[in-house]
């Protein structure tokens, strides 16, 4: 079963749908059909659970901007002929997590040290 593409709607259509529901011109279901936006996303925007512009899926990265640095490091090392094995990656992530004070991530990386 193929997954449904995410964010197939544009922000302007979502804004129009939100406006129509807020002005009591349409109910959520009909506005989502008319403007071709997901009903759940429209409902979340109306309930204040998310903003129209915030279209990210899932929680923020555990390591924040450090995740991008890790990916760049892995790619660079690989291009230079030094692929990163999982042990090296776990050590690097552990150092970053320790520096950031993310104790729960350290437990995940090394479950034997509980």
From TrEMBL:
InterPro entries: Homeodomain-like_sf, HTH_Psq. GO terms for cellular component: nucleus. One of its GO terms (molecular function) is DNA binding. Transmembrane segments: none annotated. It comes from the Eukaryota. Residues 13-51 form the HTH psq-type domain. Signal peptide: none annotated. Coiled coil: none annotated. Its main location: nucleus. It is found in: Nucleus. This is HTH psq-type domain-containing protein. It comes from Macrosiphum euphorbiae.
């Amino acid at each position: 079963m193929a997954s449904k593409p995410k964010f197939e709607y544009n922000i302007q259509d979502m804004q129009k749908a939100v406006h129509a529901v807020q002005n009591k011109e349409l109910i959520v279901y009909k506005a989502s059909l008319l403007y071709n936006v997901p009903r759940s996303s429209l409902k979340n925007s109306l309930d204040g659970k998310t903003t129209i512009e915030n279209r990210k899926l899932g929680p923020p990265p555990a390591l924040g901007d450090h995740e991008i640095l890790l990916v760049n490091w892995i790619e660079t090392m690989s291009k230079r002929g030094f692929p990163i094995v999982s042990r090296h990656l776990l050590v690097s992530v552990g150092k970053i997590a320790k520096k950031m004070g993310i104790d729960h991530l350290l437990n995940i990386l090394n479950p034997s040290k509980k």
